[in-house]
Amino acid sequence: MNAVVMCESFSGGNVLTRRWGVRLKLYWCSNCNVPIRDQICSKCGAAGRELRVGEPGDIRPGFYGDLKIIEEGIVNEFGTAKLVSLLDLESSLFFLNKVPHVDDMREIIVGGVVVGRLHFDPDLMCWRWRLSKYSSLLALNEGLVKKFVVDRPKPLEPVGDEGRDGEQAVIVDKSGYPVALAVARKGKFRVQTLFKGEPEEPIRKRTTFEDLIKSNDFWLRTRISKGVKNVAIMSRKTGLPIVVSYSGGKDSLVALHLVLKAGIEPTMLFNDTGLELPETLRNVREVSEAYGLKLINADAGNKFWEAVRVFGPPGKDYRWCCKVVKLVPISRAYKSSFRGSVLSIVGQRAFESIDRSLSGSVWRNRWLPGVLSMSPIQEWDQISVWSYIHVNKLPVNPLYFEGFERLGCYLCPAANVAEYHEIKKKYPDLWCRWEEFLRTWVAERGLPEYYVSKHLWRWHNPEAQGRRRVEKWAGITATSWVSEFIRRSGFEATLLKKNSEEVSVKITPRLPLDSLLSQWRVLGYKYSLTNELLEIKSVNGILQINSNGLINAVSSDAFEEVITTIKLGVRWLKCVNCLSCVNWCPRDAIKIVDGRPQVDSSKCSGCRICVDACPIAEMLVEKNIVTQLLGNPRSRGRRKDVVTKALSILSGEGVRRVSRRSILYTEEDLGGFIDFLKHIDTAPEDESP
Description:
Oligomer: single chain
Mean pLDDT: 89
Strand content: 15-25%
CATH topology of the largest domain: Rossmann fold
CATH superfamily of the largest domain: HUPs
Number of domains: 4
Helix content: 25-40%
CATH architecture of the largest domain: 3-Layer(aba) Sandwich
Number of strands: 29
Largest sheet: 6 strands, mixed
Distance between the termini: 36 Å
Structural class: alpha+beta
Strand order of the largest sheet: 18-17-16-19-21-20
Low-confidence stretches: 1-16, 653-689
CATH class of the largest domain: Alpha Beta
Number of helices: 24
C-alpha cells in the first residue's frame, strides 16, 4: 500500500500527505448490536454488515469519563443535555473513533450508526457536538437548532444569516428530511456537510461488554494464540533475557500479560521521564507487585526541567526530549542491568499512528543496537485490547475510564489541545508549572503571547503546515522564521563563503576557543594555536577558528566540517549533562567535567559518534543554526553515511547489517532472522553494547 498520496492543503495548494499503512475492516452484528472484527458473529452466527467509519477505524468502547465529556459537549452546543438520553448513550455500549480535525474529533457510534461527532474547539477551549444526519433529526424535533428549507443545497452555499460563529443549523428538503448541515461563519450560515440517503436508525437493544467479547470470541482467540506463539518462538530461538517495556498504559499491559501467558517471567522496564501522571506511577508499582516481577526504573529525574531552559519547549518537529528523558535513561538502565543483548517486548500497535502502521513487528533502534524489540500486539485493534483486559481482569490504568485516550508525558507536543484541557482540569498544579515556564520563556525571547495561548509552541518550524493551519484559523500573522530561530538559540549564523572546497561562516556570539581546544581531537589529528587563531588539521583538510567568531574550512567536505565545529562549540557552552556523548562513545574518551564535555585526545578516534548522539548538536544546532546557513526553516535529514558509520561503530558489522534493513518479519521469516541473531550475539565481547 502506498504511504504517500497527493492531497489538497489547507491553503489550497497541493502537498504530500502520508496515508495509513493499515485499515480496519469493521462489521456490525444487528442481532447482538455490537461491532465485530470477523464478518461472522461468534455469538449468534449471523453475518454482520460493514460499519463505515473514518480511517483507520480503530474504534474503542466508551466509558463513564467519555460520557461525561460527550454531555459537556452537547450542553456547550445546545444549552441542554436532552440529546444525551435521546441518543441512548447511558443505557448501552457506545464506541468512539478518532478522525482528522484541527484538534480532536471523535465519531460516536451507537447501535451501528455514527450518531454525531464530539470535537474540541481550541479557540473557545471547550468540547462541542457536531450533528450527524441522525442526531440532526433529533435536534430538529426538540427545537435545538434552526432549520432552512433548501431542496438541493451545494457545498459552502449561504443559506441564512444571524448565526453566531460555529452555530449549527439543519437544512431540510421540502418533505422535511435533513439533507445537509450548515455552520455559521462571520454571521452567515453556509453548507458544511451534505447528508446521503435516509436517516439510519440505531439499533435499540441493550448490550454489555460480555456481548462484545462473545461476538468477537474467535477473532480474539486467534490474536491471543498468535501473540503468545510469537513471543514463545522469539524467546526460544534467541535465548535472550526478556524485558517488557512497561509504560503504565493498556497496550504494554496486554503485551506483558501475553508474555506471562507464554510461561515466561520477564523483567519490567519503566521509563520515568519525570513527566508522568500520578496514576501511571502508581499503576507501574501495582502491576510489578501483582505479578511479582523485578522492576527496573529508567529514571530521568529532573532532566527535562533542566534541559528545557536551554532547548526551549519540545515540538512535534523538535523532539530533543525523547533523547534526554527517554533514550539515554533507557540505554543506561540496560547497560547497568544486562550484559549483552536482550529481547524487549513492546506494546506497539499499528493503529496508533501512521509511522507505526508502516512498521514491522520486529525491529532495532539504531541507538540501542543490543536491544531486539518486538510487539506481539502489532496487529491488534482497541476492541481486541479492551476485550482482553476485560476477560483477564487486568489492572489497567484508571485514567482510561476518566476519558483519557493517551497516557505518557503530560505536556507532550504531539498531544492535542483537548488533552491539555483535560490535564489542566484534573492536574492544575502540573499544568500551571508548564504554562508558567512557557510564558517566562516566551517573554525572555520577545516572542508573541499567542505562542502560548494558541499552543504554537508545539511546532518548532514557524512554517510547519500544522502551525500555519492554526495561525490561519486563529487569524494570526506568521513571524519571521530566521528571527525566531535566532531568539530561540541565542546564535546568529551568517554564511560568508561557500564553494566546493571552502566554506566561511560568522557566528555571533563567538565560540570560545577553549570550547574547541577541549574537544579538538573530534575534528582532526593535529592542532596549533597562534594569535587567537586555532588551526586544526584533519584527513580532509584544514579548519581555522578565529576568536572573533569566524570559522573557515578548506576541505573536501568543508560545510560539514564547519557545522561540526559549531556543534562542538555550542554543546560546550550549553551542555545539559544528559550524558548522551558519554553513553555512546565507543572508546570511553569523553567525560562531563564541571558541566562541560572534555575529550581525552589519547583515546578519541575522531569517529564523531558523540556529535551524532548529542541532542544539542542534532536538535538545537541543526534546527536553529544550520537552518540559518541553509536559508531554509525545514531542517535537513540525517545523512545516510553518518547513520551507517554510527551503526557500524556502535554495533559491529553483524548488527549493522540487520539494523539497516526494514525488518517486516512474519512468522515464516523467523528462521532466517534467527540466523542473523546468532551472528550478532557471538560478536567479540568488547564490541557488545
